[in-house]
Amino acid sequence: MDQEPKEIIIENLISQLAGLPSIGRKTAQRLAYHLLAQEEGAVQELARALNEAKARIHACSSCGNYTERAVCRICSSDRRQGNLICVVEKPADILAFERSGSYPGVYHVLGGSISPLDGIGPADLNFARLWERSAAGVELILALNTNAEGEATASYIAQKLHGSSVKISRLARGIPVGSELEYVDELTVQRALESRVEVI
Amino acid sequence: MHLETLSLTGFRNYRSQEVSFAPGLNLLSGPNGHGKTNLLEAIHYVCLAHSQRTRKDKELIEWNGNAFVLRLLGRIGGLAHAQSVEYAETGAKRVKVNGRESKRLSDLIGHFEVVSFSPEDLDLIRSGPQLRRRFLDILLCQFSLDYLDTLRHYNQALKQRNSLLKQAGAGNDVLAAYDAPLVEAGARITLMRRRALADLAPLARDCYRSISDGGEDLELALSGCVSEAEEEPALREDFHRKLLALRGTEREAGLTLAGPHREDLAISFSGKAVRDFGSQGQKRSVALSLKLASARLLDARNRRPPILLLDDVFAELDETRRLRIGELIRGQGQVFIANPRAADLPFQAEKIITLRCGRVVV
Ligand SMILES: Nc1ncnc2c1ncn2[C@@H]1O[C@H](COP(=O)(O)OP(=O)(O)OP(=O)(O)O)[C@@H](O)[C@H]1O
Ligand SMILES: [Mg+2]
Ligand SMILES: [Zn+2]
What we know:
Chain A is an alpha/beta fold.
């Protein structure tokens, strides 16, 4: 019997969608069929939104968060305490703090953590700008993941700023060990923030 | 707590087989080489994430196959509990515990507590420190999720740090940064191991005494620790100081040279290492005592008896030792005994599972 020909285009769409985080093969199929059932305009709108986001969104020149401006809305807000800086690994981690609604300061995005196994050293992360921002009177809250890499990165920062007048604290335990900040709920984040402990 | 059914696919000589168990004493019988030990191994693997007889998980895959799957159903505190593991030739693994997926084998541990007895336990005494550390780790993980977490943390920090030590251009500042998680997790592991040993040692001494009719005083201790400090902060400090002193040597070796991964379980009679000075029979009794004691400790800590896996032990044991095992089994929870002949047993089995060529004979 002859093999039936493959539907290459739809297969490609499904595997593209399945490559997204927390989307399994089944969900990808459902999304693909949903998109195909839409009006052409709606699909073009989605494609345009994706392209525009990718083209126009970049890192904030101050904190490294995603923004369409030169400086993001958080850094340019006058309601924020500019001398309270919460240091996170990636932009998505900021969401956990913003959802809690109780954090008065600004952020700094490192872009990852020090991981020799993956070939990521200090030079690959946004430390230069962090040292610039670490002026007198600044408090850094280290909100890095509670895995070995996050702890090593926190220790690296504490080491580098040792002897400076910068105050450093870290989130109190309560965030489950080995967990990624992005997936922690608001209440836990708020509690960990309130009971943060001094490092130096 | 007991196991109800296990389905094995492509595991050793089991092509595809489901086996159900009784909550009490299960006897696995059948001729030599037909799959009794393999079935115990499957139970061990799906509960403890490793085999009791090999470190090479690939050997567990049926010859010519490319993956095995083990699916276990059971009850914990009256509630249904399901866990499964799929292991592929490529090293890819998929774990599911009550529907929750994960890629970490160790997520299997800590649900069904298991203690296994087999003639190979003698290696615990005879072989190098690795098996003894593993014995301690598996025991601790079965009553402390905190220990399991800390151990994962430590192993990850150790891997990172070793890879750093192998990079010629790695800065001292980054190395120092990785001292932090290593020291933090390491100190906690050492203390938790020591505390568990403090509980295990008297149990093991009693077991040994009753197996050997008086005789020597069995002593257990943790050796190779960075220091004898008893408080966490002091131990952390000592560990850190040791790492600093070892900097140059560690860079040359490309390895982390101090910490819990270098510790050993020291087993001795009045200060004399059983490994070096014990007779064959003494070693056998000590190995059995360690296992009996860990079953008692798990029972006390978790307030429920662990599942016992006994492989061919009766054939090898003399009358006294048989009696001690018999005492442990009586009135206990679920027990699996592999023995070629059903008639050899000193007690009545609740269920007899007869195996032939990787199939259950009905
Ligand atoms: N990866 C594998 N794939 C297929 N068969 C295997 C594999 N590993 C071992 N076997 C087979 O499994 C059998 C051994 O089974 P097992 O060790 O369970 O025997 P047993 O019933 O415990 O025997 P005994 O009474 O001698 O202890 C052997 O026949 C061996 O050839
Ligand atoms: Mg056997
Ligand atoms: Zn910004």
